[in-house]
Amino acid sequence: MTDRKQPEPQGILSVFDAITIMVGLVLGVGIFRTPSIVAANVGSETMFVLVWVLGGVVTLIGALCYAELSAAHPNAGGEYHFLSRAYGKPAAMMFGWARCTVIQTGAIAGVAFMLGDYVAQLAPIGPYGPAIYAALSVIVLTAVNVAGTIAGKNLQLLVTFIEVAAVVAIILFGLFGLFGAGDAGGTGERAAVAPPPESAALGMAMIFVLLTYGGWNEAAYLTGELRDAPRNIAKVLAIGTAILVVLYTLANVALLSVLGLDGLRQSSAVAADMMRVVAGPTGEIVVTVAIVVAAVSTLNATMFTGARGFYAMARDMTVMQWIGVWDGRGKAPANGQIAQGLVALALIGLGAVTRDGFKAMVDYTAPVFWGFLLLVGLSVFVLRRRHPHRQLPFRVPLYPVTPIIFCLTCLYMLYASLMYTGSAAWIGVAVLAAGAPVLLFQRRSDDAPLQDALPGTLLPIQEKFDDDHA
C-alpha cells in the first residue's frame, strides 16, 4: 500500500508540448556538422537531397513502430518498459544499465562537448575550455530539470522555438537570399573533392544522416506524462517526424544552393560558411550563436527524457532505490537527474583527454544504441504474438513489412557502427558487458512496485489480465 501513496508521473504534457520536446531532441547540432560528411559520400546533388529524404522515411518507419508500442504500453520508462514486457526484466535491466552508462549519458556528454566547442570559440579559456563549458552546461541544466518538469518543459519550449527560427532563417537565406551563389563561399579555389566508391559511400552517408535524425525514439519516455497517451502518442511521433523531415530537407537544399556540392564537401562548418556568403562576418557570428542554442535545446531535451530511464530502472532494483523516487513537488525524477548528471560528468572527464570528445562519444554510444533499438523493433512482433487478441490503440501500418524494414535498418546500422567507427565503440560494448552483475540486484516479481501508468486509466489491470491469459 505504501507504493500507491508515492508520487508518480502525471499527464501534464499536451500534444503540442510533446511535439516540441521531440523536435528539440532531434533538431540539434547534427544539422550543423554532418552535411559536409554526407556530401563527401554521395556522387551528385540529387543523391545528396535524396539521402536526407530517405533518412526521414526510415525515421518515420521507426516512429510508427514506436507509436504502436507506446500507445499500447504508455510508461515513463519508455524502451525499458517495452523490453521488460517483451523479453523479461533481465533484458530490460541490461538496457537500463546501457542507457545509464553508455547510450543516454554518452549522448549527453557528446552534445555537451559540441556546445563547449562553440562556446569556446566565442569565449576561449584555454585548451580545456570545451570540456569545462561542457561540464558547466550539464551542471546547470541538471539543476533546471531537478527543479521540476514544468521548469524543464518551459526552458525546452523557449530554446526549441529559437532553434527552429534559426534553421528557418538559414533556409530562407539559402533559398531566397542568394540565387546562384554556388562557389561564392571562398571555397572555389580549392580542388574538388572526389567522392569515395559508391558501394561503401552511400552506406556511410546514411550512417550520418540517421545520426542527424537520431533522438526521435526519446518521445517514448514522455508517454507516462502525456495526456491521453494511448491516443496522442501516434500524433506526436508522426507530426514531429514530418516537421523534422521538412526542416532537414529544406535546410540541406539551402546549403546546397549556396555552397554547391563541392563547397559542402570542403567545408567543416557548413552553416557558418553559408551565412558568411549571404550575410558576411556578422552572419557567421549569428549562426555560431544559433548552434549554441541548438546544442542547449538538444542537451536539455536529452536530459529531460534520460532521467526517466534512471527512474524506471531503479524501481526494479533492490539497491539504489533512492534514484527511483519521483519528486511530487517538482513533478520530476529529481534523483534520477542527479545520478544521470554525475555519470555524464565522468564521461566528459574521459572525453577531455581525447583529441575529439564529440567523436569519441559518438563512437562510444553507436553500437550499443543500435543493438537495443533492434531489440525494440523485434518486440513489436513478440508482443503481438504474445497477445494476439489484444485491442491496440494504434497499429503500425503495413504490418509486418514496416517493422521488418525497421529491424533490417537497425541490423545494418549495428554492423556499420562496429566496422566504421573507432575503438571507443568497443569500449562501449565492454561497459555494457560489465553491467551483467546488476541482474543480481533485480527485485523479485512479487516485490516489484506497481507499474506507472497514465493517471485515471486501467492500463496496469489490463496488462495483468493479458499476462494471466496469454
Automatic annotation (TrEMBL):
Q: Which keywords appear in this protein's UniProt record, sorted alphabetically?
A: Membrane, Transmembrane, Transmembrane helix
Major localization listed first in the record, in broad terms:
membrane
List membrane-spanning regions: 12-32, 47-69, 90-116, 128-150, 157-179, 199-216, 236-259, 285-311, 332-352, 364-384, 396-418, 424-441
The topology of this chain with respect to the membrane is:
Multi-pass membrane protein
Per UniProt, subcellular location reads as: Membrane
Q: Which PANTHER family match?
A: AMINO ACID TRANSPORTER, SOBREMESA, ISOFORM B
Identify this protein by name: Serine/threonine exchanger SteT
Native source species: Cupriavidus respiraculi
